[in-house]
Amino acid sequence: MDETRAPSREPVDVINQYTGEKWYYSDIVKDHFFNPRNLLLTDPGEGEFNASGIVGSPACGDVMHIWMKIDPGTERVKDLKWRTFGCGSAIAATSMFSVMVTEDGGRTLDESRNIKPQQIMERLGGLPNRKIHCSVLVDKAFHKAANDYFRKANKYDKIVVEGAKVIDAATQTTDKDIEEAVLEGAVDLDSVQKKLKVGIGNPGVVPEVEQLIRFYKEKYYG
């Protein structure tokens, strides 16, 4: 054996051109990217699905559209199709989510709502830290589609509305800004303040900021 030869290393899938950070993708992620499940490339026919949701903007690069067929008697997701304009991680995460909500006869809408992005990542064998937010795109689109179904079914008490709330007027920081910061890896007050400057000049909002950090940390990382 040649002792001078450098040890073999796992090939790098992506290298960030700006930071040099190396990203590795599991075989499961690659499979769902190259062979996405439940992908719908053309708009469905009228009446084919009874719920839909869309999030994102073409200007930002990421758009997610979900269509679902819900059983009115059981509220189980019998079918879910999707289309996205996003990165490989977003495609793989959405593909896996579509499998999770429709397998074994389909989960109920309430059960599907309780799927955390962390659970999607576990089924995928992990995602690079900077790609965690990609598993959230499908989560947001699904919640919109679920609300669409409940609205059409006149079950308004089951609609969950998520709106942005200004937490710090001085910096115009909202709860959604804090959510995005946590998704990007800022999971304590110091790191969130470095990103957003929230509460630095207005310490009275710090307790609420800390509460939101704990909430989103639990929601996305378990």
TrEMBL record:
One molecular function GO term is: iron ion binding
Domain NIF system FeS cluster assembly NifU N-terminal per the UniProt entry, residue ranges: 25-154
One BP term from GO: iron-sulfur cluster assembly
Q: Which InterPro entries match?
A: NIF_FeS_clus_asmbl_NifU_N (IPR002871)
Ranges annotated as spanning the membrane: none
Gene3D superfamilies to which the protein is assigned, alphabetical? 3.90.1010.10
User: Under which name does UniProt file this protein?
Assistant: Iron-sulfur cluster assembly scaffold protein
Which organism is this protein's natural source? Candidatus Sungiibacteriota bacterium
Its organism's taxonomic lineage begins at: Bacteria, Candidatus Sungiibacteriota
